[in-house]
Amino acid sequence: MIDLATATVIAKMASDAVGAFDKIFRGFADVVAKKEPTAPHVPPPDFVYIDSPEQKAFVAKSRKTGATYQTVTYQTLCETLSGGDREYIETLTRAMENYQRQWNSAFEQRSLASGMDVGRMDAQLDYLARQIADCLIKVLDFVGKMGLHLDDHYSMARHVAGKYLARA
Asked: Which of 13, 108, 120, 135 would staple 93 via disulfide (CB 3.0–4.6 Å)?
């Protein structure tokens, strides 16, 4: 068990980690599709997973309507998670945010590259996609451990990431 303050911090970090992936998911899916031609289309996310201090909960809300799909209260997190979970999600969140920054930088550098440098940047994006895939699977597993069910977007993203890693 964890205390309420820790549950609040964990909900925020999980939200941040998922949000970092959402910001780069289209490029990630495109790089994976180039390397894995049978990769299914990853649909855009229907839901956003957010920390909601007003509700004292981690909430899945519709991106279109704002309607709540699922709620896991901080109290439930207190009962479900253990002390080591904070450090674990904190590490994953930092890693995902670092990968997001690296991805954005490599993607921008690729747009400025020419000749053989394009191939070097493609290799960098492929390397980052593998790192992101591993981290993404761990983040989504943790969100599931928190008690939230994944929508089709995240389920498909996890599947694609797993197949991509298995190819290595």
From this structure: 13
pLDDT score for 40: 60
Cα dihedral: 51, 57, 62, 67 (round 10): -140
Q: Dmax over Cα atoms in the chain, in whole Å?
A: 56
State the Cα angle at 70 between 64 and 75, rounded to 5°: 140
Percent of the chain at pLDDT > 90 equals 67
Q: Identify the CA nearest to 39 among candidates 25, 50, 57, 53.
A: 25
Contact residues for 96 (Cβ-Cβ < 8 A; gap 6+): 16, 17, 20, 21, 132, 135, 136, 139
pTM attached to this predicted model = 0.88
Please, what sign has the CA dihedral across residues 125, 148, 51, 40?
Answer: positive
Residues of the chain with pLDDT under 50: none
C-alpha to C-alpha distance for 70 and 65, rounded to whole angstroms: 14
pLDDT digits (tens, 9 = 90+) for 95-136: 999 999 999 999 999 999 999 999 999 999 999 999 999 999
The span from the CA of 112 to the CA of 148, in Å, is 40
- Structure-token match 């593998």, residue found: 130
